[in-house]
Design a protein that fits this description.
The protein is an alpha+beta fold. It folds into two domains: 4-82, 3-Layer(aba) Sandwich (Glutaredoxin); 84-200, Glutathione S-transferase Yfyf (Class Pi), Chain A, domain 2. The protein has nine helices and four strands, in the order E-H-E-H-E-E-H-H-H-H-H-H-H. The protein has helices at 15-26, 43-50, 69-79, 90-105, 108-113, 129-149, 162-177, 183-193, 196-207; strands at residues 4-8, 32-35, 58-61, 64-67. It has a four-stranded mixed sheet, with helices on one face. A hairpin with a 2-residue loop joins strand 3 and strand 4. Helix 1 packs parallel to helix 3, helix 4 packs antiparallel against helix 6 and helix 7 crosses helix 8. The structure holds glutathione. The site of glutathione has 16 residues, from helix 1.
């Protein structure tokens, strides 16, 4: 059995699954993935076998179960300090943790207004007023990270961190629904989408042949 098994849902729309998956792939942490198809009559029973919350992602590390996306990323950061999942500088690390946690608990109107769907043709979709405010907040956070701490590379804190992993599904939403993006936002979106890990995820999502999720079917 592999050291790590990551349980994930459909790549087309399981935004939470994407976060630890892309972090592990990008940072070259070897793992096996185990797929639990979402939105079927059997899903709840299948999830109950592997997940204490009935949700994915879940990481099984030699029998130790870690659930909740941010907890999985923190666990990996503890195990692999050399991968620098959090920035080394304490001030940058505080900001990275803050923006990652804000993502974990927030931006509901963006997530529901723009559900991740990697097979949807790209076309602008307006958000409601709360969604627009959250979109503006995300853009200002990305700018704060990039302008303050991103000089050493193309990611939020220069090199790839857990903060980039947490925002990766939002990046896909900006690409799918955001229309014409501000140049600096477009540049960050393109950097994330062009990583081999994200390309790999998209390629596998494109092979999924099940029906599309309806609106609000995931967050
Ligand atoms: N707070 C959880 C959210 C996980 C979550 O909502 N996962 C969705 C898939 S993206 C899920 O498992 N849904 C169960 C279902 O669709 O039956 C986390 O951070 O991991």
């Amino acid at each position: 059995m592999a050291e790590f098994t990551l349980f994930i849902g459909n790549k087309c729309f399981s935004s939470w699954s994407l976060r630890p998956w892309v972090a592990m792939k990008h940072l070259k942490i070897p793992f096996e993935e185990s797929f639990v198809r979402l939105r079927t009559p059997e899903t709840a029973a299948n999830l109950a076998k592997v997940s204490p919350t009935g949700l994915v992602p879940v990481l099984n590390h030699n029998g130790r179960i870690v659930w909740e996306t941010l907890a999985i990323l923190e666990y990996l950061a503890d195990l692999y300090p050399e991968k620098k999942l959090w920035p080394a500088d304490i001030e940058a690390r505080a900001l990275a943790r803050s923006v990652a946690t804000e993502m974990h608990s927030g931006f509901r109107e963006v997530r529901y207004g723009w559900p991740m769907n990697l097979r949807r043709p790209k076309a602008y979709k307006a958000l409601d007023a709360d969604g627009e405010a959250q979109r503006a907040r995300i853009e200002s956070l990305w700018r704060q990270c990039r302008e303050g701490y991103g000089k050493g590379g193309p990611f939020l804190f220069g090199h790839f961190t857990a903060a980039d992993a947490m925002y990766a599904p939002i990046v896909t939403r900006f690409d799918t629904y955001g229309g014409e993006l501000a140049p600096d936002i477009r540049a960050y979106v393109d950097v994330v989408l062009s990583t081999p890990a994200m390309r790999h995820w998209y390629a596998e999502a494109a092979k999924e042949t099940w029906p599309e999720p309806g609106p609000h079917e995931q967050d």
